[in-house]
Amino acid sequence: MYEARIYEHSDYRMPRHIRTDYYLRKEDVPQPVITESQKPYNDVAAETFGPLDKYVPENDNVPDYNGMPLEEWKAAIRKDVDERFGPTPDDLVPAGDEAFAPVAGQRERIEETARGTFIQIWPNRQFFPFDPRPEDVHIDSIAHGLANICRYSGAVEKTYSVAEHSVHTARWLRLRYGVTSALCALLHDSPEALSGFGDVGRPVKGKVPFIGETEDNIYRKAVAPRFGLPLVLPAEVHEADSRIIADEVAANLAPMDWHARYSDPLGVQIRCWYPEQAREEFLATFEALMDCRARGME
Fold first, then answer.
1. pLDDT tens-digit profile of 11-21?
2. What integer is the mean pLDDT of 212-220?
3. Helices 275-294 and 162-177: crossing angle, nearest 10°?
4. DSSP per residue over 187-230, as a string?
5. SS3 category, 275
6. DSSP secondary structure of 224-271
7. If you ran DSSP here, which 8-state letter would residue 60 be given?
8. What span, in angstroms and rounded, lies between the C-alpha atoms of 77 and 91?
9. How many whole angstroms separate alpha carbon 119 and alpha carbon 193?
10. Residue 205: what pLDDT?
């Protein structure tokens, strides 16, 4: 039985409560003594299997086509596809729209995807990011989605959701600019729960304009009309959305040089709510603001 020892390294020290018999220095472990030379492996192979021929690697990159000429193989694949799925578009004779009419059993599937691709939003709803409509927007789906999306690509010390970010921004604006600005702030990131992109950092959005354009389209065509908000976010919402970064990075990110660009915080307290709490706070803020608006409060 070897004695457990502790060894100090330049950047690591093994805790004493951890077994260290697996971490002994090589020179501390007795080595077996070889008293006679071992047999060469080639001799063993020759005695057991006979002389070994030179190994020639097989070239797995040469196409086989099941032993058929290439054109014959293509024809066989085409025939199999036609038998399984019907003629391909190259075989269809143009005859107006009738030539492309869906066959029985396919109409429902085609109509379902006529609006383009969709994503599932909570709990079991469809949302079409490239054909956004107000009737597809649900506040509980937005709240749930944003509560489960982490800010800063997850590079935070503790989970910090887009929902919490939106709540802090909205509550700060409510006291200074009124109900409409607060509602816009609460829902300004709602496309992140509806687009399929999630929270994408500003540097990336700047290089991929399509992401921002898709999110703007969702907000203008679906979110704003659904909740009676202005199609263009007020300037104070953009300002607060940038200023709160100073609060967030100071509270929840490891220091980096780029943080210095954000030196005018809102002064809000970042709490790092867990998702269920963030969802409830988001919905409570929404209901309170909608109630204020229904009462005619500014």
1. 434 443 433 34
2. 98
3. 30
4. HTTTHHHHSS--S--HHHHHH-HHHHHHHHHHIIIIIHHHHT--
5. helix
6. HHHHT--SS--HHHHHHHHHHHHHHHHHHS---GGGGG------PPP-
7. T
8. 15
9. 10
10. 94
